Amino acid sequence: NAGVTQTPKFQVLKTGQSMTLQCAQDMNHEYMSWYRQDPGMGLRLIHYSVGAGITDQGEVPNGYNVSRSTTEDFPLRLLSAAPSQTSVYFCASSYSNRGYGELFFGEGSRLTVL
Amino acid sequence: SQQGEEDPQALSIQEGENATMNCSYKTSINNLQWYRQNSGRGLVHLILIRSNEREKHSGRLRVTLDTSKKSSSLLITASRAADTASYFCATEGSGNTPLVFGKGTRLSVIA
């Protein structure tokens, strides 16, 4: 049982480049979300989705896009990378479309923007 | 913001001792959860306590919730070196809002 799978694990970008962080879960979870983790800041919510075709903004959505065309996948797109987006990104899912219950996390994607 | 704030930021104890971490939050909640993160890894759920519960146990973990003080504590008894990790509280607001995480407590258990 793979759980939540994130790719890539590491990425280096130049300022202005775009890229997509992939997230897939095989638990048939309705709820999926993206967080970023920065030193001393804890985890901050970027975007979330309560089901296929439905997305919403979290605390820090600027510079990021998401879509949810299937239950399994929830990619995070960086449109024009900036050094401020250097961070560790975590995808998480939950069985409930209300975000209740425990979140299952991926192992993280470490992004450096030069 | 309903972000939980953990206290202390860092804690260092000897193996076999108990570790207590606290979390305070600002607004009404449906539930409060505790997560653990080993260095370089994703977060792992430890325990969930609902707003109408006061105490919950899971193995060596004991969580309390005081909604009148808007605070929770996580107690790890008989700590082991393997308990070394960061611990985060996360709150789900009463308005069905997504989980909001605190900044975490970094626990070091010295063998």
Layout of strands and helices, then pairs:
The complex is a heterodimer of chains A (114) and B (111).
Chain A lengths: L3 E4 L2 E4 L5 E7 L5 E8 L3 E10 L2 E4 L6 E3 L9 E3 L8 E8 L9 E2 L3 E5 L1
Chain B lengths: L4 E3 L2 E5 L4 E6 L4 E9 L5 E8 L4 E4 L2 E6 L4 E6 L8 E9 L6 E2 L3 E6 L1
Parallel strand pairs in B: 2-11
Antiparallel strand pairs in B: 1-3, 3-8, 4-5, 4-9, 6-7, 7-8, 9-10, 9-11
Global structural class of chain A: mainly beta
Strand percentage of chain A lies at over 45%
Largest interface: A-B, 25 and 24 residues
Number of helices of chain B: 0
Taking the sheet with the most strands of chain B, its summary is: 6 strands, mixed
Structure description:
The complex is a heterodimer of chains A (114) and B (111). By secondary structure, chain A is mainly beta. Helix content of chain A is 0%, strand content 51%. In chain A, the strands form 2 sheets. In chain A, strands 2, 4, 5, 6, 9, 10 and 11 form a 7-stranded mixed sheet that branches. A 4-stranded antiparallel sheet of chain A has the order 1-3-8-7, with no helix packed on it. Chain A is globular. Chain B has 111 residues and is mainly beta. Chain B is 0% helix and 58% strand. Chain B has no helices and 11 strands. In chain B, strands 2, 4, 5, 9, 10 and 11 form a 6-stranded mixed sheet that branches. Chain B has a 5-stranded antiparallel sheet with strand order 1-3-8-7-6, with no helix packed on it. In chain B, a hairpin with a 4-residue loop joins strand 7 (61-66) and strand 8. Classes of the chains: A mainly beta (114), B mainly beta (111).
Short description:
The complex is a heterodimer of chains A (114) and B (111). Helices cover 0% and strands 51% of the residues of chain A.
Give a quick set of tags describing it.
heterodimer, A: about 110 residues, mainly beta, seven-stranded mixed β-sheet, four-stranded antiparallel β-sheet, 11 strands, B: about 110 residues, six-stranded mixed β-sheet, five-stranded antiparallel β-sheet, globular
